[in-house]
Design brief:
Elements (H helix, E strand, L loop, with lengths): L7 E4 L5 H12 L3 E6 L2 H11 L3 E3 L5 H10 L5 E4 L20 H26 L4 E7 L12 H23 L3 E9 L8 H4 L4 H9 L11 H12 L10 E4 L3 H7 L2
Parallel strand pairs: 1-2, 1-4, 2-3, 4-5, 5-6, 6-7
The structure holds NADPH dihydro-nicotinamide-adenine-dinucleotide phosphate (NDP).
The site of NADPH dihydro-nicotinamide-adenine-dinucleotide phosphate has 27 residues, from helix 1.
Length: 258
């Protein structure tokens, strides 16, 4: 029996990377899955491959979420996955001293405003039946400070905390609407490309990025998707307000350091 059979799921940022892998895993577990993204061409192509619907959804846009709410008033699972690092176009560290207000706002708008709006839509849609699962992509960067990525780390810490607020609010209302955050470490997706580059230094950069990871490799989008399937399924009905780390042991190692 597929684990998500009969469920209607919606994934943001599903054109590629972790979002696409989650959508694919949901479909293979029997869910009807709506793919959304700001990138229409790539999103439509991924959705076509999975034979599922695609809609352009900019997670920052209240109007876009309103349109989705009108189309899908009975969603069972919402995955707030869309996110940006602020490094798009190349590695330009946004440390707390030199980060521009424009970069700060751009990252917060997608990563935190987007999750707020996605949770609000999900609660509104799920409360009539009083059940559902909201899955928010935070990051290991939401659990520790990141000197070179101030806005990203702050936004992901916000996602971590807002997920717990949503979980407690829904429980308080007497709804079995669960909300949890997933905290990946380095997962090899297109998000990393501007940081890895091409050419002879790529392998060295990859080795450098995973040097502190106890499992000594990048994770895969499919490994994150497996966790999302669990949280979406009825196997996880007692898990809410939790933060699930998937980082090859990185956080455990950091915590153990003197
Ligand atoms: P990718 O950059 O590979 O994919 C993100 C997708 O989201 C892209 O298709 C992107 O479109 C889309 N997107 C960007 N802005 C918006 C927006 N405003 N509205 C809707 N969609 C948008 O990212 P990953 O798959 O690597 O990451 C997915 C999530 O996991 C993110 O939240 C990320 O922060 C988190 N994460 C990832 C880690 C990793 O190592 N990969 C580690 C920790 C957390 P476009 O291409 O047009 O920008």
């Amino acid at each position: 029996m597929p684990r998500l059979s009969g469920k209607l799921c919606l994934v943001t940022g599903a054109a590629r990377g972790i979002g696409a892998a989650i959508a694919e895993a949901f479909v293979s577990e029997g869910a009807r899955t709506v793919l959304t993204d700001i990138d229409e061409a790539a999103g439509a192509a991924t959705a076509a491959r999975l034979r599922m619907p695609f809609h352009r959804l900019d997670v920052r846009s209240e109007a876009d979420w309103g349109a989705i709410a009108a189309l899908y008033p009975e969603v069972d699972v919402v995955v707030n996955n869309a996110g940006i690092t602020g490094f798009e176009g190349g590695v330009v560290p946004h440390d707390p001293e030199k980060a521009s207000l424009a970069t700060w706002r751009a990252v917060i708008a997608v990563n935190l405003d987007g999750v707020f709006l996605g949770c609000r839509y999900a609660i509104g849609a799920m409360k009539a039946r009083g059940t559902g699962s909201i899955i928010n992509l935070s990051s290991r960067s939401g659990q520790v400070g990141i000197p070179g990525a101030a806005a990203y780390a702050a936004s992901k810490a916000g996602v971590r905390n807002h997920s717990k607020t949503v979980a407690l609010y829904c429980a308080e209302q007497g709804w079995a609407i669960r909300c949890n955050s997933i905290h990946p470490g380095a997962i090899l997706t297109p998000m990393w490309e501007p940081m890895l580059g091409t050419g002879p230094e790529r392998a060295a950069r990859i080795a450098e990025f995973v040097a502190d990871t106890p499992l000594r490799r990048f994770g895969t989008p499919e490994e994150v998707a497996a966790l999302a399937v669990l949280l979406a399924s009825d196997e996880a009905t007692y898990i809410t307000g939790a933060e699930l780390t998937i980082d090859g042991g990185l956080l455990a190692g950091t915590a153990a350091r003197p």
